[in-house]
Design a protein that fits this description.
InterPro entries: G-protein_gamma, G-protein_gamma-like_dom, GGL_sf
Helix content: 55-70%
Strand content: under 5%
Pfam families: G-gamma
Number of helices: 3
Keywords: Cell membrane, Lipoprotein, Membrane, Methylation, Prenylation, Transducer
GO molecular function: G-protein beta-subunit binding
Membrane topology: Lipid-anchor
Order of helices and strands: HHH
Length: 69
């Protein structure tokens, strides 16, 4: 009996999730692609993969040490 209640509860949660997803407003793929392309073009100047990272502000660069003693 407890298994039936658990499966009924799981199904009820699934139905609620599907209702939420069905209510999400959708846009057409060409519109989404155009908006994504426009966003990328507007933010290209800030993209570190395109413009690089200034040497002084790169947190991944290994610190240099002086080898002369």
């Amino acid at each position: 009996m407890a298994g039936d209640l658990a499966s009924a509860s799981a199904l009820q949660c699934l139905v609620e999730q599907l209702k939420l997803e069905a209510g999400v407003e959708r846009i057409k793929i060409p519109q989404a692609a155009a908006e994504l392309q426009q966003y990328c073009m507007q933010n290209a100047c800030k993209d570190a993969l395109l413009v690089g990272v200034p040497a002084g502000s790169n947190p991944l660069q290994e610190p240099r040490s002086c080898a002369l003693l």
